[in-house]
From TrEMBL:
InterPro entries: CheY-like_superfamily, Sig_transdc_resp-reg_receiver, WalR-like
Signal peptide (from-to): none
Nucleotide-binding keyword on record: no
SMART domains referenced in this protein's UniProt entry, alphabetically: REC
Response regulatory domain ranges (all copies): 10-127
Protein name in the entry: Response regulator transcription factor
PTM-bearing positions, type 4-aspartylphosphate: 60
Record keywords, A-Z: DNA-binding, Phosphoprotein, Transcription, Transcription regulation, Two-component regulatory system
Domain of life: Bacteria
Keyword DNA-binding: yes
Length: 131
C-alpha cells in the first residue's frame, strides 16, 4: 500500500511588485512551500474570505484597494485564520508603521530590501516545511 505524501505548507504572498512577487515565489517553492500569490489588496481580501487558511501569510503594507493593515485585521477576524502567522514585508521602516502592524496582529515585520536567508529563517520560526 502506497503511503500518501504529506501536503506542502501553503504560503499566501500578497505583493503588488512583480519582481518581488516572483522572487518570493521562487524562494518559497525551493524551501518547500506551495505559493498562492495575490497581486493586490482586493484579491487578497477575497482569498481571505473564501479560501481555507494557509500555513503562513507574507503581506506587503502598501497595496492597491486594501492595505496590509486592513488585511491583517481581516485575517485576525476570521476564526479559521486567527492563528496563521502573518509576516509583514514592506519598504516602510518607520517605527510607527512597525508598531501599527504588530498591534494589528502581525507576528513579524521585515523591511525591504530583505535578505532572502533572513526571511527564510524568520519563516522557520513559525513553520517547519517538509523537505
Amino acid at each position: 500500500m502506497e503511503q500518501e505524501k504529506p501536503s506542502l505548507p501553503i504560503a499566501l504572498v500578497v505583493e503588488d511588485d512583480d519582481h518581488i512577487a516572483h522572487l518570493l515565489k521562487f524562494m518559497l517553492e525551493r524551501a518547500g512551500y506551495r505559493v498562492e500569490l495575490a497581486r493586490d489588496g482586493r484579491v487578497a481580501h477575497d482569498y481571505i474570505q473564501s479560501q481555507p487558511a494557509p500555513t503562513v501569510v507574507l503581506l506587503d503594507l502598501m497595496l492597491p484597494f486594501f492595505d496590509g493593515l486592513q488585511l491583517v485585521t481581516l485575517v485576525r477576524s476570521q476564526p479559521s485564520w486567527q492563528s496563521v502567522p502573518v509576516i509583514m514585508l514592506t519598504a516602510k521602516a518607520q517605527e510607527s508603521d512597525i508598531v501599527r502592524a504588530l498591534d494589528a496582529g502581525a507576528n513579524d515585520y521585515i523591511v525591504k530590501p530583505f535578505q532572502p536567508d533572513e526571511l527564510l529563517a524568520r519563516l522557520r520560526r513559525f513553520v517547519r516545511p517538509r523537505p
